[in-house]
Each structure stands twice: as structure tokens, then as C-alpha cells.
Amino acid sequence: MVKRGWWEGQTEALGRALTLLGRAPLVTAVVTLVLATALALPATMAWIGAGVTQWFGGQGTEPQITVFFQQTIDREEALAIVQRWREDEAVARVVFVPREAALARLLQTDLGEAIETLPDNPLPDAMTVVPRRFAPQDVAQLQQRLAAEAGIETVQVDTAWVERVHGLARAGTMVAAALAAWFALGMLAQTYLAIRLQLVAAAQEISVLRALGATDGYIGRPFRWFGWLQGLLAGCVGAALWGGLVAWLTPPFDELARLYGLGGFFPFPVWAGGVALVAAGAVLGALGAEISLRQFFRASA
Amino acid sequence: MIRCEKLAKIYPGPVAALVDLDLTIPAGQFLLVCGHSGAGKTTLFRLIAGLETPTHGSVSVNEHDVARLGRGGLPYYRRRFGLVLSDAPLLPQRTVAENVALPLLIAGVSRRQAFERVALALERVGLAGRAHELPPTLSGGEQQRAAIARAVVHRPSVVIADEPTAQLDRDNAEEVVRLLRAFHAAGVTMIIATHDEALFASVAQRRIVLANGRLVEDTW
Question: Is the pLDDT of residue A60 over 60?
Fold first, then answer.
């Protein structure tokens, strides 16, 4: 007898799975839509979260380090220091603030009248340094290096603010991850139920196959394909839904970003999210089917 | 050779479907199992085919105890049998050919070779022209012949048939007997339950009678 190859067995099971999917098209469509929503919703929230985090890390709210020079150094020495730091790898940009400009700004505040009574300008030259990386440890390291520089009197940085921003970003990421896990569980449960219903509907067929000598592997193969296909289908529909939401949400978010001078809203490429959704759908579908089958075979052993 | 020793099956209730049955069936025998409804015929068949586990006692084939096969070995054990049982009807959503091909596909035979053998089996039972139809469109006699084709297509060593001629007219019933006789002549052990002993009188080599789950008569 010519034995079947692995591919022939899988192709036959795939055909059975497609038949099962096509047997109740309305049920397949509804289940696909539910699963697609479970995939697309957290993906959309993650996309918005990533975009907002990008805004917080953007130029409008970037942390600044204020550096005051010693009163004893002259203007040329201060500008030489400024130039040296402009070329530093850890620094995004440096703005020199001459003591005259600082005084003029101070005179426009409530302290102006008191300052005017002083015989000399009490303020030193200063510079504001914007780090290239905003992580608290990077900012602290840059602060230490600046403080160690000769000719620098004081270095001020609002590290608490930096930590707050990163804390917010971390919380946002965790919320998105928790939602994704929650919906993934929901999708697993839905696939489990869908396969369970298929198994119950095919009870007579399974009983006949068992009587004729079919192994659990043979009986379960079409249902494994079914779960995978259902998940893949949901992933594709979810990716399409997500793509539509992104296309719909991008213009208002872009406009908001423009109004606040924050740049565009491009958290991550749409194609990458779509591919991730399709893959997640297929994997979760296969996993849900596997759990359902194992439970069914254990119960009917 | 199939040997049943002190074989018993007690269902919850308790209902004793089979009680301390001792029976040895030599290879190649044509055995007729008789008895009223509820006598224990179907339970005996299910136990021999490995579809049920005995409450106590044992079934062994060629000195191998079926109970020791375990979950992994049972499917391969069941492939030795050709079944015509109400537990294993033709699947209504699959064509006649697909139904008959099942034992071969389950055993891993290539699809092409499986359907070549299905064509031969269907031709032998006179259903070559109905291969692509669904079972509910066939008459009772045709369905029974299709079930016999499925039972023998993989050349099993034992065929177990529970009332294979029930609800068939005389001509169809005789046709079924003729088929079973032909497969028996090829060396297949036949275990047949029937209420119509006269129909199998010319072919049966042994007759046992069950009553209330007990073996009450054994005639060679």
C-alpha cells in the first residue's frame, strides 16, 4: 500500500476545515468580527499610547539642563565651553544665554523693580542643554559630567519631571499590555468555544471515525486547521479594521500635534501593526483550538 | 483467534448487559450470534471491537489482551475490524465513496490508491454508479451494501456486522448474505448478529445464542 505523505494528510484536513468554515457562513462571519474586534481594539489603543508617548518625548516637553557659568570666567571661555558641549554625542543642542539677556528677561518679571536697584548685573552667563536621550539615568549622567566641567558653577535639572514623564509612559505601556492580554484571553476563550461547538456538532462523525480506528491526531487535525484559519481570518479582518481606524484617526491627531507644535503623529508603521495582528490572530486561533481539543479528548477518553 | 474470558459489562443502574461470557472464536470462522433484543449481542460486539471496556473479564486477540493496549494502541487495534454497526453509520454529509474510503484514509493510505480500492469495493457490492451520491439518497439495501463495502475495503481480518439484513426485503437481504459469504471465502472471520437465522443457515459454521447477557447455547 502507498502511504500518504505528511502534506497529503494536512491538505485533506485543511479541506475539511474549509468545509467546516463554509458550512455556516453567518456564524463564521460573526465569530470573525468578534475576534477581529478583540484584536483591533487593543492594537488601536497601543497605537494611540505609543503616539502620545512620542509626543511627551518630543521637542515641546523635552527635559532641559540649565548650566550657570562661574562669574570669574570671561565670555570667550564660556563660549568655548558651549561649543565643546554642542559637539558632545549625548547632547541634542545647546543654547547660550548671555547674562545681559537673562537680566533683561528677569527685569520683566515681578522681581524687576528689586533687580533695578542693584549696581551691577548679578547674573552669570548660562546655557541650556537638551540631552539626546531622555531616560532618567542618561539625564543624570549628563548632569554629572556637566558639573565636573571647569568653569561651571551650578547645574540644574528637573529630574522629577523627567521621571514623571517616563512614569506616565510606563503606565501607558502597561495599560496597553494589560488590555492586549485581556483581549487575547477573550480571543482564546472565543476560539475555544467555536471549536467546542464544532466538536459537539461533529460528535457522530467523531464517534464513527473512532470506531474505524482513527487516532486523536487524525480526528483533531481538521479542527486545528479550523482554529488556525479562524484566527488568521480574524487577524486579517482585525488588521483591516485597525488600518481603517488609523487612517480615520491620523488627521485629527496630526492636527492636534501641529497646533501644539509637537510634530506629526506616527507611532509605528501601519504595515508592521497589520502583520503583527495577522500573526497574533493565527497563533491565538491555533492555541484556542489546541486547548479545546485537548480538553475534549481528555473528557471523551 | 479471539478469546473472551469471564467477560462482563455492567452499565450504571446497574444493568448487566453481559455476564461472565466465555467464548473463543477461531480465525476464519463464520459465527452467527442470535438472541432477542437486549440479549447482549451489541455489547459483545462493542467489547470485541474495543469500543467499550469490560467491567471485568478480558478480550484477547491472538493472546494479546485488549485492555493492555492503552489509549494509544486502541485505534490501531480497531483497524483490524470491519464494522457494520449502528454505532458506525455512514456519514450523511460525505459521499458514498468518501465514506467507504474512510478506513483506508485513517490507516494512512494515499488518497489516489484509497479511491482506486474504493472503486473496486463499490463495484463488488454493485454500487459503482452511486459513488458520488450522499448516503441519504440511497435505498436501505444500498446503504447496507455501502456499509459492507466500507467494512471490507481495508481487508480486515474480522468483520463484525450487527443485523446487516434488518429492514431489507428478501432480495436485498440475500444479496448482503452473498457478499458476506464471498468475503468469508477470502479468509475473513465473520461475526454476524441476526434475527433471521434461516437466511444465514447455508453459510454459518457456528451459532451461539445469548439471553440476558449470558451464553445459553453454542452449536457448531
Answer: no
Residue B6, SS3 per DSSP? strand
In sign, the C-alpha dihedral spanning A35, A36, A37, A40 is positive
Q: What is the DSSP letter of B133?
A: S
In 3D space, the residue among A213, A200, A211, A228 whose CA is nearest the CA of residue A13 turns out to be A228
Q: What is the pLDDT of residues B54-106, one digit of tens each?
A: 999 999 998 888 888 888 899 999 999 999 988 789 999 899 999 999 999 99
Count how many residues are written for chain B: 220
Contacts of A209 in chain B (CB under 8 A): 102, 106
Quick check: A210 and B110 CB within 8 A?
no
Cell of B195: 434475527
Q: How many residues does chain A have?
A: 301
3-state secondary structure A13-38: HHHHHHHHHHHCHHHHHHHHHHHHHH
User: Nearest 5°: CA angle at A275, between A271 and A278?
Assistant: 140
Alpha-carbon distance A22 to nearest alpha carbon in chain B (angstroms): 13
Question: If we measure between CA atoms, which residue out of B169, B168, B151 comes closest to residue B160?
Answer: B151
- What's the pLDDT tens digit per position in A105-126? 878 777 777 777 887 888 899 9
Burial A285-296 (b: 16+ CB within 10 A, else e): bbbbbbbbbeeb
Q: Which three cell numbers stand for residue B53?
A: 471496556
- Helices A270-299 and A159-201, packing angle to 10 deg: 40
Lowest mean pLDDT among A33-47, A68-82, A218-232: A33-47
Name every chain B residue with its beta carbon within 8 A of the beta carbon of A2: 109-110, 112-113
pLDDT at B132 over 90: yes
Q: Do A8 and B110 touch (CB under 8 A)?
A: yes
Q: What ipTM score was computed for the predicted complex, to two decimals?
A: 0.90
DSSP code per residue over B41-76 = HHHHHHHHTTSS--SEEEEEETTEEGGGSHHHHHHH
Task: Check whether A164 has a pLDDT greater than 90.
Answer: no
Nearest Cα of chain A lies from the Cα of B5 at a distance, in angstroms, of 23
A203, closest residue in chain B (CA to CA): B91
Interface of A with B (CB under 8 A): 1-5, 8-9, 12, 204-205, 207-215, 218, 301
C-alpha cell at B78: 480497531
* H helical segments located in B79-136: 96-106, 111-124
Least CB–CB distance from B91: residue in A3, A8, A208:
A208
Structural domains in chain A, sorted by start: 10-58+164-299 (no CATH), 64-157 (3.30.70.3040)
Strand partners, A131: A91
